[in-house]
Amino acid sequence: MGIAERKERQKTEMKAAMLDAAWQLVLESGWQSLSIRKIADAIEYSVPVVYEYFENKEAILLEFSKLGFKLLSNKLKQAKANYRDPSQQLEAIANAYWDFAFSHKEYYQVMFGLGMPTCEQAKTMPELTDFRKVIETTISDINADANVFIKVQSFWSMLHGLVSINLVAPENNRNGKGKDELNNLVLKDFISGFLKGLQN
Asked: Nearest-CA neighbor of 97 among 150, 32, 164, 19?
């Protein structure tokens, strides 16, 4: 291995170590407590060294947003691949999205909260485009005449809204039903209504 290759590998490893340290800090104390200084302390390097790899904290948040969208996209693709019928595929996508949000809360928070990419950033983020594409193609397969952009926005908005309500107020427990049971009923009701509107 040449000197250039070795330096590149070391750079990659250092960046990965910084992200690992940042992730551990987030798991322990949440996104709000994350800082460049704490990352530097965790890897036992000076603050300027971290700045050599990341311009600021927002750059680290964006990196985690990309990782989150990539993971979410893969989960949706896996769920879709289990079915041939587009309507069943869309239902599976909705369920996979829901499951992702609660099994990967930290990623979800940075993807749609603290680290939500700006419009300009989103245009250059293939991970976000790939995620949307999974939903777009499935909706097109159900109804080729639908306004896919509007339908994707509606689908995503409803799912994100349901998830957000539960992440912000997890104690929500109405009508005497268990939280999980109520959430499943609401999710099924949304998917059923969305599919009916899409198929008309």
From this structure: 164
